Amino acid sequence: MAATISSLFSAFNKEIIVTESTLSTVDYRWIRIRNILNQFYYGYDKSGTGLFVGSIGRKTDIHTSDVDVVYMLPDSKYTQFNGYISNGQQALLQEFRGAILATYPQTVIKADGLVVVVAFSDGIRFEIMPAFKQTNFSFIFPVSNSGGSWRTTNPLAEIVAMNDVHTVTNRNAKKLARMVRAWKEYNSVSMGGLQIDTYVERFIKNYEHGGKSYTYYDWMTRDFFKFLSNQNDAAAYILALGSNQQVYQYGKFCQKANRAYELAIQADVSFTKGYQQAAVSYWKEIYGTKFKYAE
Prior knowledge:
The chain has helices at residues 5-16, 20-41, 54-58, 75-82, 88-101, 155-168, 173-187, 193-204, 217-229, 254-272, 276-287; strands at residues 50-53, 66-72, 108-112, 115-119, 125-133, 139-143, 149-153, 237-239, 246-248. By secondary structure, it is an alpha+beta fold.
């Protein structure tokens, strides 16, 4: 039986999704770290103190080398460290690091400006941000650079926005976001995860085929990269989905997006003419070696 658009893109999406085994490892490690912090800051195993954010929180990642987490501190700690004469933020990050280091003495743990990084030998890194939850569900977090300051972030709004667009597009939004990450990695494109998810959300919520099946993923590939090639990659930042926070753009991507668009057109033409393996070779140039031909 010949391959179909649906079978090809369905198989590709299964190839790039994070495995259950990896997620289990992440969950196990986070529960251990969270319990350590709970005992240090609350004296007992308090629930609801940790939140996966970033790509893993929005469930748009394709591997879990970096795990972004917000850990919610008691408000008394804000009062304590905000009262320091200078850089209480740095002192807070060092205290936070020390609490984890007591249990993981052989693991690389460092305070890194905004977060505490816990780097395991298998390549999985937890970037844990100590923060204080606000009544509007945003978080205040410490920044130790330049003498210390407090900033605000709202990753929950970004998670909700991605979940909402995923629901109204027949669960296609997160799949497209993962495919774009595969393109980014294979082609060394200078884009961050939140930047990708924001462009995906902008595109797919108004896309005429956004809620259709895998049968339309060849067109979705073509039309998304055409959309992306027309964005302003010279702009310093864009406003993130949900939170409207500034997401800085550190490199050019329009030229590579236009190349992906051209390859997608060639793939469509080849597939329509019955040259399936040729079509797959074009999609592989876009998405990498995990896009495979299989009858």
